[in-house]
Amino acid sequence: MDAKTTVLEVLKKEGEPMSAGQIAEKSGLDRKEVDKAMKQLKEEEAIVSPKRCYWEPKA
Description:
By secondary structure, this protein is α+β, with helices and mostly antiparallel strands. The chain has a single domain (3-57), classed as Winged helix-like DNA-binding domain superfamily/Winged helix DNA-binding domain (Arc Repressor Mutant, subunit A). It is built from three helices and two strands. Strand 1 (47-51) and strand 2 form a beta hairpin. Helix 1 crosses helix 2 and helix 1 (3-14) crosses helix 3. The protein is globular. The relative contact order is 0.23.
């Protein structure tokens, strides 16, 4: 499973906006991997930010 999929699954499972640090902690991925995956997910518009530095899956 790639980092993008893991990040998206963690966000969906938690059901609340999370920071990159929280995602890294929950997923077990390195913070740099999470940042890279989140950048790709943002470009694909798969995640949105309801408040600064917190992300959730796009509804």
